[in-house]
Amino acid sequence: MHSRLQLQSTPSVAIEVNNLGVSLIDGTTIVSEISFSVLEGQILALVGESGSGKTTIATALLAHTRQGAKISQGEVNVAGLDILKLDENALRRVRGKQVSYVPQNPSTALNPLITIKTHLEDVLKTHAPTLAAAQQQARIINTLKDVELSHGDAFLNRYPHQLSGGQQQRVLLALSFITKPSVIVLDEPTTALDVTTQAKVLLTVKKLCQSYGVAAIYVSHDLAVVKKIADHVIVLYGGRIAEKATAAAMFSHPWHPYSQGLISAIPDIHLRSIPVPIVGNAPSLQSRAKGCVFEPRCKLATLACKTIVPPLDKIDIGDDHVVACHNLSRQTDPFSFNHHTAALKSRVIQLGTQPPLLEVKHLFASYDGKQVLKDVSFHLKKGECLALVGESGSGKTTISRAIAGLNANAAGGLYFKGQSLALAARSRSAAISHQIQYIFQNPYQSLNPRQTVRQTLLNTVRHYFPDKLKDSDEIITAALIRVALDPGLADRFPKELSGGELQRVSIARALVCEPSLLICDEITSALDVSVQAAILELIKSLQRNGLSIVFVTHNLGIVRSIADRVLVLKNGAVVESGEVDTLLDQPQQPYTQELINDSPSIVDL
Hints:
Shape: globular
CATH architecture of the domain at 357-435 and 516-524 and 539-598: 3-Layer(aba) Sandwich
Distance between the termini: 31 Å
CATH class of the domain at 357-435 and 516-524 and 539-598: Alpha Beta
Radius of gyration: 25 Å
Helix content: 25-40%
Number of strands: 22
CATH topology of the domain at 357-435 and 516-524 and 539-598: Rossmann fold
């Protein structure tokens, strides 16, 4: 590692934020009264549901806001500068040099038309123009070594599309650290990565911050990841700080009811339980409560909560732990997540000797002339949930699409209810097609933006059950109620719904088809933990009613929560399979052991 500085025993403050506020142009508050500081080499995590203000605060640290918003007050002090007072020319010099930003999606952040080498050289030409050519090359080589990427010409001359997702994310880290900034802002940088790649990227971030003496602001909705990487945590709700503490204190004894709800909603690889969603939904900017913004969802709420904004009060537990809640005195026993790990009993499903609903025999598939599935066989019974896990590129989605009849290059045998099933969806009868439904990862792309929820569901009824059109209103209402959506949402367009609501609409559309088998492809990966918990609770209830489920995920916490059996895939082949608790507790293959060891957890074993 090539350090920017040797950290002293008492590192100095790298960034200090005082009373930051961001609002819409019309004066509507987005975030308010945000204050914190981060020391050199430390990582502060900002957590909370969508709409809590995480990304608004993160981008405000670079004096940037979304269109229609403005920074209304406050200070952001970095390296002796109040960034919010700089003009545009000064900001261009500071952004990328003193404060760097790592976005969530590297595939859209990197320029597809230039090589990795040109990306790195352009940053140095902009922010370190006095470096000689030899010094530039040395800086590039050292930075690539630090992020554990090759520094040879073969790699440097590649274009972004020629790299894996993990490599692209490391390139973004290299671009951010190559200027040796004081502060780096990371906005959900590992959301789309599998657990092994995620673990490596998180370790790299931690090492770089400590080695370079860089303070990091880490935005995430994945609290298991936050526990693994953060030194301090700020829980945000409705644009305000609900709780602020060290990571150790936050995860051992969170005090705010919202913090407790977030932690209870986390699926964890070491907990054999269904995560508990927070009742209700996060408020819009226009519907925030006048007092405590969490009051409509809080079990401890009193009359004062409706009218008085709670101040941030320090909790006397030996560290800098502050909470905004009127009713801390009503908590006789502060929440401790580890209390919930005591009674873990094996969950072995009782499906009896019934014949399989689905059989997959010797399935092969290829893509662009390369074999991506190699002799995969398994079965699925009625009411069973089978999880497909493995690194990116292991074949999970390829198997799912083959079952759904969406893989043109698949070969092998598929059998559904004892009958041979055509590999192509177009060759399947309507009587079979409606029984196998695929729910995609991104509901924003799988739902027609020009159709209301009602129109989407009505088209499904018209396609599969034209004889039931006269009962379509009742069918649609029943489907929405089944996925815990207000039937009043039926006349809204996708853009008017949240991500969690959209995913429920996708599930409702599948349920209208009266399926026997649901294929769920990473359907919770982009959702807040509370919304995710609600979706998992819904999936589990559908399973109890006899629905069979193939669940594709890289989150082994979710696997522990809802799966009955697990299929572990690597390079298109099955390396291990078995009952979920047995496989996760006693993995036999080194690859499975690596996946489990790399999975973040909030439980201290």
